[in-house]
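Try this one yourself first.
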């Protein structure tokens, strides 16, 4: 059994009320949830601290929604709070600001967790060019020959000392967990590199756990600002032409 859990917090420093911002007339959280519901997950749950978001999600047939405390510090903690009361073995954490996340990617993470007993946590990446890799807001990942993450960073990694041909990979903010590991993970204290980079996935690596990285061609459009919202509008209009 598997569940997709979407954390949706109303407050946002750069874009207040972000989950309810409309893209081509549809609230962003509804776009995310609707795509997730196309996946092979047995259930899709929105976890929110907002009655407004709750009311919008309750109108979507087949979508589950529950309230959580506004004091919960991160999306992963919010997901874990909900997962604690589920029997589903696999939990997929999908960010509420990824309006075009493809359901096929969700299926890929579920399949990987189901078929590999040693995989406790997985995520995704996509290839980018060197210029995009310069942006500290774009999180990069490097991985070993078995596609296990070696490191995530806001810095441009790897450092191409000799200016040879080099591939760069952007981390996509979707995570798959075995439920037991998720509950263990959120109880771990924050770690040194996690606090330096402000990347919570480093907590798993610093504690000696592996994160499987799955490559995709999906190019994410995350919405964090009004400019991002305009890009999302342009994307959907071009897609619908």
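Now uncover the answer:
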């Amino acid at each position: 059994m598997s569940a997709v859990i979407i954390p949706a917090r109303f407050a946002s420093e750069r874009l207040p009320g972000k989950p309810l911002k409309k893209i081509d007339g549809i609230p962003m959280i509804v776009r995310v949830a609707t795509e997730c519901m196309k996946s092979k997950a047995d259930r899709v749950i929105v976890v929110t601290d907002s009655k407004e978001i709750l009311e919008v999600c309750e109108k979507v047939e087949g979508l589950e929604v529950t309230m959580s405390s506004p004091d919960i510090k991160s999306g992963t903690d919010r997901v874990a709070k909900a997962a604690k009361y589920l029997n589903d073995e696999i939990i997929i954490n999908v960010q509420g600001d990824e309006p075009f996340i493809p359901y096929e990617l969700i299926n890929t993470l579920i399949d990987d967790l189901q078929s590999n007993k040693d995989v406790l946590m997985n995520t995704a990446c996509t290839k980018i060019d060197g210029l995009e890799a310069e942006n500290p807001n774009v999180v990069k990942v490097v991985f070993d020959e078995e596609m296990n993450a070696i490191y995530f960073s806001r810095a441009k990694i790897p450092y191409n000392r000799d200016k040879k041909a080099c591939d760069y990979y952007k981390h996509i903010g979707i995570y798959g967990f075995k439920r037991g590991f998720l509950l263990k993970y959120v109880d771990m204290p924050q770690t040194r590199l996690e606090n330096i980079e402000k990347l919570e996935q480093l907590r798993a690596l610093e504690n000696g756990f592996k994160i499987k990285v799955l490559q995709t061609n999906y190019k994410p459009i995350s919405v964090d600002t009004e400019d991002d919202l305009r890009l999302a509008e342009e994307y959907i209009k071009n897609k619908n032409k």
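Discussion: The domain at 2-239 is CATH 3.90.550.10 (Spore Coat Polysaccharide Biosynthesis Protein SpsA; Chain A). The mean pLDDT is 93.
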